[in-house]
Amino acid sequence: MKKTFSWFRKIAFAEGVSFLILLLIAMPLKYFAGMPMAVTVVGGLHGVLFVAFAVYAWEVKTSYKKDLRWLMKAGLASLLPFGTFYMDREWKKEEAAATI
Predict the structure, then answer these.
(1) CA distances to 22, 57, 59, 94 from 99, in Å
(2) Of 3, 12, 18, 79, which cross-links 46 as Cys (Cβ 3.0–4.6 Å)?
(3) Which residues contact residue 58 at a Cβ distance below 8 angstroms, ignoring those fewer than 6 apart?
(4) Which residues of 77-95 are buried (b: 16+ CB within 10 A; e: fewer)?
(5) How far apart are CA 15 and CA 80, in angstroms?
(6) Cα–Cα distance measured from residue 20 to residue 38, given in angstroms and rounded to the nearest whole number
(7) What is the pTM assigned to this prediction?
(8) In Å, what is the CA distance from 93 to each residue of 8, 9, 25, 39, 62?
(9) What share of the chain in percent tops pLDDT 90?
(10) CA-CA distance, 87 to 37, in Å (whole number)?
(11) Residue pLDDT, tens place only, 51-94
């Protein structure tokens, strides 16, 4: 089950990267360069990663007996730019301490 936490952290990283690409590259391309396809492609990828993040966050919560506060912090991290990168330090410690 320790792989669940590892996969969660990998997906959280990918979700964070896709969010930054969406905000810093795709949206400016759409609005300043008239290239809406950038948001369509990156937004779709980000959406898939966001759903995977939510599913794995729930799996970590249930498998590792995390409380609702942990899940809410994870959700907030996914909504803030750089949030998943900031939280990864804490998640790395939690993963290392996991006995499952």
Answers:
(1) 36, 18, 16, 10
(2) 18
(3) 71
(4) bbeeeebbeebbeebeebb
(5) 11
(6) 13
(7) 0.92
(8) 13, 11, 32, 34, 18
(9) 93
(10) 31
(11) 999 999 999 999 999 999 999 999 999 999 999 999 999 999 99
